[in-house]
Amino acid sequence: MKAIPTAIPDVLILEPRVFEDERGFFYEAYNARTFEAVTGIVRTFVQDNHSRSVRNVLRGLHYQIKHPQGKLVRCTVGRIFDVAVDIRRSSPTFGKWVGVELSADNKRQLWIPEGFAHGFVVLSDVAEVQYKTTDYYAPEWDRTIRWDDPDLAIEWPLEGEPILSPKDRAGKWLREADLFD
Fold first, then answer.
1. Does 151 reside within a domain?
2. For 180, which DSSP code?
3. How many domains does the chain have?
4. In a domain, 116, yes or no
5. 174 and 151 in contact (C-beta within 8 Å)?
6. Which terminus of the chain faces fewer neighbouring Cβ atoms within 10 Å, N or C?
7. Is residue 181 part of a domain?
8. Rounded Cα distance, 141 and 6, in Å
9. pLDDT tens for residues 122-163?
10. Collapsing DSSP states into helix, strand and coil, what is residue 33?
């Protein structure tokens, strides 16, 4: 596995070592020792999540104000544009975002640490996203920032209007949201 830096130093793209031949492929999606050795990050993952969405579904930007979750995200079917937004007020990269294409073909993962909002849009007909979290889901602390916040100016690769959940339609602007210090 190799770690590829992004414009926000705390967010990393992880590229696995893939073994391919005429039978198909094999790779370790996660190994705690390798993750720590390559990234220098020590975390315990406590929950795995799996979603399936159709083209142009946009999920996010989600985070938990208490019990924040670090996330290790990958796309195992199709393609997504995955986004991490720094919402730590004291950070030099506060309000900045990183977007990365994750796909079944490139097998990349995105490490998003605690203190970030996370979202993605589906670029293929169907996509399945799997991600590990460092804390459990706590619905009472769940928050959403609007995907189209002009202060963030995320360049979503959309085909028309996104398909949103009621929760995502009701997201707050960054300037009104509960954030981390």
1. yes
2. B
3. 1
4. yes
5. yes
6. C
7. no
8. 28
9. 999 999 999 999 999 999 999 999 999 999 999 999 989 999
10. helix
